[in-house]
Amino acid sequence: MTNVVLKEEVPQKRTVYFFTKEEAAKKGMGKLFEGKYLESRVLCSGQGEDFCVYVGVGEDSLDLNGVKNICAKAVKEAGIYTEEICFSLAELGEKAGGAWEDSELVGAAAEGIYLAGHQPASYKSEKKKEKNHSVILCGMEPSEENNKKLARKKALAQGICFARDAVGKPSNLLRPEEFAREVEALFEGLPVEIEIYDASKLAKMGMEALLTVGKGSKFPPCLMVIRYLPVKGGEVTALVGKGVTVDTGGYCVKPAGSMAGIKGDMAGAAGVAGAVYALAKAGGRRNTVAVLPMCENRISPDAMLPGDIISSYGGKTIEILNTDAEGRLILADGVAYAVEKEGAARVLDIATLTGAAAITFGKCMAPVLADDDGFYGEFAQAAERSGEHYVRIPFFKEHEKMIESSLADVKNVGGDTCGSITAGLFIRAFAKGKPWIHLDIAGTAEADKTPVQEYERAGGTGAGAATMFELCF
Ligand code: BES
Ligand code: ZN
Ligand code: ZN
């Protein structure tokens, strides 16, 4: 992991300098460097190793995600030439035009830098080791507050990198129970209580929806619960994450061309694990319980079939009309359990749930459904601090009607339109009226070869973890 330190003085000579478009124009470098947002140029003195990097800030004021991106870019560019990088974060803050506290700037910069330095797990027989960099953020007092923020973001980045690597892990190396054990190992030594319910326990508990999805595989499902409860008697927020370690679609099998990312269908659970890890490590002050249903969705003589009617945790009945809409089934059990057994006062679920969300909203923002303005307000503020982009989608009674079944209480598909909304509302039906937020990260959970953020790499992104962390800290 990259090493980041703060330093109050700003030395004359730095490795990276920032320019707005206006300043770049004054420098008269023409097309060589215009100061556009995220533009970069390496300059060399011609005297051996003496070099520096210019990075553009653009002309508009930025949000914290912009700061994260610029810092990531600066470190990646300069990092090609040197292991020790130094720039003035105070100067970047001024040029980016935000009225941020120093600690907010430090937090965003650190997050961008740590994440940009993530070295994805490699399965090549010969491993390439990338350099480990050291970054000095100048113009920032190494005060207790700033250093605390740095430590918090380091914990968060570690959690996010765990989630990224889990998403990248092939399903033959990450069966549901192995996934649970890896998450358990991540939490070693931290003040949490962990429970892993195996299939026989799930049967006793009546987790029929999770068992139904999982029974198509010889690798059994499980439910992992992680309790981080720093406040005795305080309200509990439940984070429920979809942990489908592989989603073939079941009998409604996916076409071959849609199978590329099926090993990453546990990104929701991985993101929750990463967020709660960071909370426990950095001393978050709110009670948070992670509920992570884990399973494979496969075809076998035992697998669920379209038309099947099942029960679920708490007794609501479900008509299964599409076996590829499996995420909402396991989340139904997870959400009902979180409210009933963990006493959650409010519930957030997160999942790579619908292809429709990915197509509509793309890779830089995710749709959110929420039924409580207070809870959503807190979430939106958390997203402002994390820099992640979300867009709240409204829903109406007409949408709820779409998942009514003539045979059972609900059905697991809503028809051909607005699939992301009906998918979310299916899960809401199990939240027993508690304030509920639903994040569909089908688009944002994985980056392709040209990631939309400078601090991402191809593969898992850890989407959602940063905002859940800020929400529950
Ligand atoms: N895991 C998928 C959704 C998905 C698709 C995530 C593409 C990431 C990228 C989910 O289980 C699924 O298959 N959903 C179906 C639902 C449909 C059958 C109602 C979908 O979106 O097509
Ligand atoms: Zn599916
Ligand atoms: Zn799925």
Distance between the termini: 23 Å
**Strand segment count:** 20
Class by SSE composition: alpha/beta
Helix content: 25-40%
Radius of gyration: 23 Å
What percentage of amino acids are in beta strands? 15-25%
The average pLDDT score comes to 97
Bound small molecules, by name, code or SMILES, are: ligand BES, zinc ion
- The low-pLDDT segments are none
Specify the number of helices: 15
Q: Shape from CA axes?
A: elongated
User: Main β-sheet: number of strands, strand sense, barrel status?
Assistant: 9 strands, mixed
In short:
This protein is an alpha/beta fold and 473 residues long. It has helices spanning 21-27, 64-79, 89-96, 102-116, 144-168, 176-186, 199-205, 208-214, 267-282, 327-340, 355-361, 373-386, 397-401, 419-428, 465-472; strands at 3-7, 16-20, 40-44, 51-58, 84-88, 134-138, 193-197, 222-228, 236-241, 243-247, 287-297, 309-310, 318-319, 346-351, 366-370, 390-392, 410-411, 436-440, 446-447, 459-460. 36% of the residues lie in helices and 20% in strands.
